[in-house]
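To whoever picks this up:

The nightly regression suite flagged isopentenyl-diphosphate Delta-isomerase as changed. Nothing in the input moved, so I suspect the structure step. Input below, exactly as stored in the fixture:
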Amino acid sequence: MLVLFFSTVTGQAGRSLKNIVILKSFFQTRALFSTTDVRPCPFLTRLSPPSRGIGLCIRHNCSQKQTQEVQIRGMASIDSLDKTQVKLLAEECIVVDQDDKVIGSASKKDCHLNENIEKGLLHRAFSVFLFNQKGQLLLQQRSDAKITFPGYWANTCCSHPLSFPEELEEAENLGVRRAAQRKLKHELGIEPEQVPLNDFNYLTRIQYQAKSDGKWGEHEIDYILFIQKEVDAKPEPNEVQNVRYISPNELEGFLKSSETKGTKISPWFKLIAQTLLPDWWKHLDNVKSLEDHGTIHRM
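Regenerated output under the current build:
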């Protein structure tokens, strides 16, 4: 595309100032949105805004046609999946690089296809750990209708901030906090006033990758949010089939017995529970002292 554009502009004997401005704008846009990797985009980051008139994807300089062709080839059958969950696949997640810098957006479906994950597609997520005043952690068992990790036990709430201004806001991590408040209401029926934005403690981030099955999986940079509140949980059955509060000692036994009892534990929760969570839990009364916003733990 670059060669054709260049020849079109420079091939005119009387090149006008207008064309010079267009060419300069093209190179500036290319520099802004490209990386040194210029192969056709193997994963489905969204295109730069149509108003730019240049069919570059935000990550890899792809033409719009090329990106659409990759998207068509990457489609997985959704006919057998829960209809409510299928609708949620259209949500736009935030695509990030290895340093958690926003580089675009992609549908929830695109972000969770293993074939895209294996090519590097990475999105932003969060995990809420909600404790009651006794210091017990609220766990949820994911609904069997969920597309990824159905029926698995996990921490209180795990989801994604979406690619719109309110949840893209990075100042004081407001976007992630808003997303957490939204999903606690959606999944567990917890009213926003019971979990005020300022009461979420953002501790750190982890990056992990896991397959749910042959088609679907996760590859996320996951913001860890702690909050200690008494709440009224009213689980949405299509999202959550069971909840329970658990103490540190009970969790240790729960994890140890999961394999013999056939209890399924989500990979992100198991990773966190076996590494970072025990120390965090011991310092629940002073959890802000554990904040580490500069580190992304690769797990």
